[in-house]
Amino acid sequence: MIAPKEFLEKYSWDGKRDEESLIIRAMCLGTTDEIITIMKTYETERLREIYLRRIGEFVASNRTFWKLMLDVTDEEYNRALAENPRAAWNMPPFR
């Protein structure tokens, strides 16, 4: 398994250092091994909280994947989308 700090570091290409932003980038762009590491390293509840609060930073395909992985209900998902105007944009993934 990859060490969490090691795999998050590669997502700091623009100097961003806050862990939450790096976790989101890893959730959106990570390899299968990195996704497994994320799920083993961070509590599901913490990942759900990050996902729902910052849902606008996920593109539609990532939103659907993480909605299923984190067992987010349709009600929670729709509420998060409604509370986050950025979520209405279909932004390209971080690259």
Q: What can you tell me about this protein's structure?
A:
- With 95 residues, the chain is mostly helical.
- The protein is 60% helix and 0% strand.
- The chain is built from 6 helices and no strands.
- The chain has helices at residues 4-9, 19-29, 32-41, 44-53, 60-69, 74-83.
- The longest helix has 11 residues, at 19-29.
- It is globular, with a radius of gyration of 13 Å.
Report mean pLDDT, rounded to a whole number: 85
Query: Stretches where pLDDT falls below 50 for ≥5 residues?
Result: none
Q: What portion of residues belong to β-strands?
A: under 5%
H/E series: HHHHHH
Tally of DSSP β-strands: 0
* Largest sheet features: none
- What is the number of helices? 6
Cα-based radius of gyration, to the nearest Å: 13 Å
Structural class: mainly alpha
Taking the alpha carbons of the first and last residues, their distance comes to 24 Å
Helix content: 55-70%
What spatial form do the alpha-carbon principal axes imply? globular
Describe the structure using short key phrases:
about 100 residues, mainly alpha
In short:
With 95 residues, this protein is mainly α. 60% of the residues lie in helices and 0% in strands.
